[in-house]
Amino acid sequence: MRPTLAIFKNLRWARDGRDKRAFFIWNLPIIWTIISTFSFFVPGENYQKFENGTIVGAWVGRVFTPESLSGSLFPVLGIGVVVLLMVGFIMDSLRVSKPLWSVLFILGGVLLFAISASQLSFRELNFQHGSVLAVVLYDVNFGLYIAIALSSVLTAVKRLFERIFRRNPKA
Questions:
Q1: pTM over 0.85, yes/no
Q2: Exposure string over 88-108, b if 16+ CB within 10 A, otherwise e
Q3: Contact yes or no for 90/98 (Cβ under 8 A)
Q4: How far, in Å, CA of 17 to CA of 8, rounded?
């Protein structure tokens, strides 16, 4: 048997030595990094959409240096990837449903953009935010956050109800 860290002992996919369940731990950081990198190059007005859309990694820059994050792509990506690796590990441990997460991710991004586009015309969006693409990337990033939060909470509640209402075999 391969040696593993103590934290991995109870996880089936780590115990088997295969990454069957390691979907979120890899895909969340990859998806977020791609969206955030594009967002850096199309940042919106004063890098505001980039800073707000990459809040998972940008919070450290806001805490330690109150200036704009206009030149700091790699620190934001590095911290964001570490945070999302931890979140992905938790989601894989909870065994969050991939179809549920995927639907919530797509719906979250589409609905957020629909709300943004319903308030202003594309010309006004382009003028106010510097680019429509900046708004799209911002909304997709927040759709990712919404999907992570909702799918994790729904899965945790489902697991809790399964544990509470599990039939007792002795009764």
A1: no
A2: bbebbbbebeeeebeebbeeb
A3: no
A4: 10
